[in-house]
Amino acid sequence: MLSLFVIIIISIATVIIITGNLASSKDEEFLARKNVRYILNLMPDSEEPAEGVEYKNVPLEDDDDQEILPFLDSCFDFINQAGNGWKSDSNNKGVVLVHSYFGMSRSSTVVIAYLMKQKKWSLREAYDHLKEKHSSVNPNDNFAVQLIRYEQEMFDHSRTMSVIDFRH
């Protein structure tokens, strides 16, 4: 059985992003304590969401054949929905849990790409920021290559990391 694994990643404008594993998405006490109202599941299998939680499933495999870039905009829209849906007062933010099975590859890849887009950060800046908060960040080689390609598309073919940099 997986133990609960979560890290608060970043607070951006009106949203707080938490990355975690499957166990974190099923722990109703944790979800209530952290005020999670949105869950983005990046695993092939859908799950029954907790009551009062908006839920999105993006069925991604953690393997060498899975394209992740085509799914990013949909993931980003859901994360932004968490921020847009929170209007009670200026001190509160929407909280979204982005999770995969272990919370290391798929969820990290999506959050790194989100930071790159929202903060206009290079891949190196986004990766280092996430790695500082979540030492188990470990996009698989396929996702690392796609993040490099995403950076090159965003920043006119510049590149700040190679696949080997993800292993240090």
Q: Which descriptors would you attach to this protein?
A:
168 residues, single chain, 5-stranded mixed beta sheet, Protein-Tyrosine Phosphatase, Chain A, 5 strands, alpha/beta, 16% strand, 6 helices
Give an account of the 3D structure.
The protein has helices spanning 22-26, 28-33, 72-84, 106-119, 123-133, 141-154; strands at 6-12, 15-20, 38-41, 54-57, 94-99. By secondary structure, it is an alpha/beta fold. The protein has a single domain, classed as Protein tyrosine phosphatase superfamily (Protein-Tyrosine Phosphatase, Chain A, Alpha-Beta Complex). Helix 4 crosses helix 5 (123-133) and helix 4 (106-119) runs parallel beside helix 6. The radius of gyration is 15 Å and the shape is globular. Helices cover 38% and strands 16% of the residues. Strand 1 (6-12) and strand 2 (15-20) form a beta hairpin.
| Low-pLDDT segments | none
Number of strands: 5
CATH topology (fold) name: Protein-Tyrosine Phosphatase, Chain A
Spell out the CATH superfamily: Protein tyrosine phosphatase superfamily
Mean pLDDT: 86
What are the secondary-structure elements, in order, as H or E? EEHHEEHEHHH
The portion of residues assigned to helices is 25-40%
Q: So, CATH architecture?
A: Alpha-Beta Complex
Q: Which structural class matches the secondary elements?
A: alpha/beta
For the biggest sheet, the summary is: 5 strands, mixed
